[in-house]
């Protein structure tokens, strides 16, 4: 018997909603949507959630709560990740969510985030993709690395993400060569540590998650608009990712916003995300990767 559930993933850059009918480990989507709220704006520098960021998130969450009630979801789980882990005023954010949603957010650890991402990503993979898998989830504030076959066997969460690296290093428009070099040096050091921590050399397939990966996949496919059905389980080789990353870092924010598959709220940070993705491919030694539209959001829905 199926059960209607709702899952909310509130990260550093975006807040996403999935309402689905769950039957065992199968999900049938009713609503899957995303808004860029940039909850983590300035957190790396100030250690606090900005009032305007909390307000943007409140507005998005109010709309989500209305849709959840209209669709009659019996159970709801909201997970908050990197930004709300790092913030000194997380209690203010928690109180806002409790008021709007009627339930508090779960501020999960990086390891919990990684396990949920893995569970969502590996469900329904094409049969020709060999295990073990390395699942890499590039978020706004953090990136998760998980290795496993049927379940997560080793996981680590590290503080590199597209928002955090942009705010820390990529200040010019477009970024200066020295800024890119400094970001690349830091990202490479962190990625090397993460790959070693999860023994990534064991993995045979790389699966990439989240908006950076799926947007780059849409660019690689030459899509005239964002199409999740075309992007899901599409494949890119290392040379494609490197070329697109170089192009994105050389473009202005206005030029990136003009890309057909680009969400306007992602245009200013996707250069850093592409740098992280390219570094993972290079340092892990994979020839390419598979992009997945199923990620932590699906893992949350399955865990409700």
Strand and helix map with partners:
Blueprint: E1 3-10, E2 14-23, E3 26-36, H1 43-46, H2 51-71, E4 75-80, H3 82-86, H4 90-101, E5 106-107, H5 110-122, E6 133-138, E7 143-148, E8 152-158, H6 162-168, H7 177-197, E9 205-209, H8 211-221, H9 228-231, E10 235-237, H10 238-250, H11 253-257, H12 270-284, E11 288-292, H13 296-303
Parallel strand pairs: 1-4, 4-5, 6-9, 9-11
Antiparallel strand pairs: 1-2, 2-3, 6-7, 7-8, 10-11
Keywords: Hydrolase
Domain Ppx/GppA phosphatase N-terminal: 19-282
Protein name: Hydrolase
Strand neighbour order, sheet with most strands: 8-7-6-9-11-10
Mean pLDDT: 93
Q: Tell me, briefly, the overall form.
A: globular
Distance between the termini: 15 Å
The CATH H-level superfamily of the largest domain is: Exopolyphosphatase. Domain 2
Major sheet size, sense and barrel closure: 6 strands, mixed
DSSP summary, beta strand count:
11
CATH class of the largest domain: Alpha Beta
- What's the alpha carbon Rg, rounded to whole Å? 18 Å
How many domains, in number, for the residues?
A: 2
- Poorly predicted segments: none
Q: Assess the beta-strand content as a share of residues.
A: 15-25%
- In CATH, the topology of the largest domain is named Nucleotidyltransferase, domain 5
Helix and strand sequence: EEEHHEHHEHEEEHHEHHEHHHEH
Structural category: alpha/beta
Portion of residues within helices = 40-55%
How many individual helices?
13
State the assembly state of the protein chains: single chain
Please give the CATH architecture of the largest domain: 2-Layer Sandwich
Organism: Actinocatenispora sera
Pfam family, one: Ppx-GppA
Keywords: Hydrolase
GO molecular function: pyrophosphatase activity
